[in-house]
Amino acid sequence: MLRLLVAVCALLASIGTGLSDQPQEIKIGYLREAPSRIRISLIDVPAGNDGLAGAQLAIEDDNTTGRFLNQHYTLIEKLLAEGEDPVTAMNALADQGASFIVTSLDADRLLKVADAGQARGVTLLNASALDERLREQDCRANVIHVAPTRSMLADGLAQYLVWKKWTKWMLLTGSHPNDVLFAEALRHAATRFGAKIVEQREFKDTGGARRTDSGVAEIQRQMPVVTQGAPEHDVLIAADESEVFAGYLPYRTWDARPVAGSAGLVPTTWNAAFDQWGAVQLQNRFTKQFQRPMTAQDMQVWTAVRMIGEAAVRSGSGDSGKMLAYIKSPDFSVAAFKGQKLTVRDWNLQLRQPILLFDGRNTVSVSPQEGFLHQSSALDTLGLDRPETKCKLK
């Protein structure tokens, strides 16, 4: 406790914040849609408060610091009902005083909310949508991206596989649009880091019920056939964001090969086993409060809410304009138990962050890998770099 008080006093001295009698009220909105509960494994079905729990813990953390600075943070949450207009929901949060709104929305809804929010002076923090176009041709100056892109995930995985010298890949892609987008990111990563895709195949989603008496037998017959006759390869990469087939691949492939991508070795921003750089204390606090493990979605929302709190503290102001200017400035950083401070790319407002590689029980590695160099930040070896961007912030 003494160390905390000393740290807070030093912080007050560094930012020169004068305390007033009335607490400075900072309202943070959280606009989300219910997560899909369709998963191959019952273990992976998300909780109803997936993401929301991360926001609630982050608000507590913001208020821990805010208490010393005479700031008070309030979370205003809105869950979209089926068919509800997200713009109307955003306006309702703005009417309640939330000028920063964290979102867990798909790309199309996020863009609608972003365009409508510009007139209201609302800044969005995207904690869910992975789509590259949101950071490229469809980028917006009032959207900061905390969720990684598919290319960041693919690059994090590719660096490790290349480091292992597993450079011959077979790529098995699902038939849904998001599967195709992830496959594109994986192909780009292979080219970027010197791997070779020896063959690509498509797994078409034809529907059907796997949870039947004959389901396991059907899977056991089907998965080897899907991968039969492939050229020599080191690893099977699955692009299956839609959760149709990838979870059935490990231990069922024709050749004895490791699986990575959407199953097996999975790139992510967080997992329940991660315990480096003090992460175990965050994991323990989360589990104690919510009686479940912390997910990547929880962590992305937690980080977004903490970024807002950090901006208010470091700028010494609750003014949304000053806070946003600080987040976009080169002075901004946020600590998120990743071994280094996370910063924002000024060309597309994407948060730089390491990518964890998770095997379902343990964190196997953390990218960027040693030896992958960059002239400004090793984190910029993950995802599209400044020379590649199509973003023109407006």
From TrEMBL:
Coiled coil: none
Stretches that traverse the bilayer: none
UniProt domain Leucine-binding protein: residue ranges: 47-203
InterPro entries in the cross-refs: ABC_transptr_sub-bd_PQQ, BCAA_transport, Leu-bd, Peripla_BP_I
Domain of life: Bacteria
Keywords noted in UniProt: Amino-acid transport, Signal, Transport
Signal peptide residue numbers: 1-20
UniProt GO BP: amino acid transport
Family: Belongs to the leucine-binding protein family.
Protein name: Amino acid/amide ABC transporter substrate-binding protein, HAAT family
Source organism: Bradyrhizobium erythrophlei
